[in-house]
Design the sequence.
């Protein structure tokens, strides 16, 4: 089934954001693990795996539409050097992804590609859930202080 070229470009743009997220969240997970902050390691790792599954779904959709998934054009990873910065970097990426996904959903509606739109809506829902979690973590850091927050996240 031949897909619309603009939709394929949009899907590839979302795929690029998801590929960035896989790597960024995975690296943040391993940094947290190295620091002994197991709860953050698990949360970041889980999100990295979710992004991998979403990327897989996007790749399958692009191939079904007879497009070529672009796995070569990575954007910039935002890597934090401390816990608060890692959370902030992930918030920044989620905001960037949200804008890309929202634009792509609108394009799919315009082009009447409702299957791609549904896929993107599912992705958006998952990203909003993770964004809410990140916002909560930022609120906890602010309320507790960074040192107390980290202490609470260390697995005994």
Sequence:
């Amino acid at each position: 089934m031949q897909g619309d070229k603009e939709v394929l470009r949009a899907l590839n743009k979302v795929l690029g954001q998801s590929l960035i997220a896989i790597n960024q969240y995975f690296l943040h997970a391993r940094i947290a693990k190295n620091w002994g902050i197991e709860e953050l390691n698990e949360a970041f790792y889980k999100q990295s795996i979710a992004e991998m599954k979403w990327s897989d779904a996007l790749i399958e959709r692009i191939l079904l539409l007879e497009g070529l998934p672009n796995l070569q054009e990575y954007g910039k990873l935002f890597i934090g050097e401390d816990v608060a910065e890692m959370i902030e970097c992930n918030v920044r990426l989620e905001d960037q992804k949200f804008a890309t996904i929202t634009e792509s959903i609108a394009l799919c509606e315009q082009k009447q590609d409702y299957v791609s739109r549904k896929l993107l809506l599912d992705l958006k829902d998952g990203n909003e859930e993770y964004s809410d979690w990140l916002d909560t973590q930022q609120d906890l850091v602010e309320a507790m202080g960074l040192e107390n927050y980290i202490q609470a996240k260390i697995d005994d």
Q: What stands out?
A: The chain has one domain: 5-68+81-153.
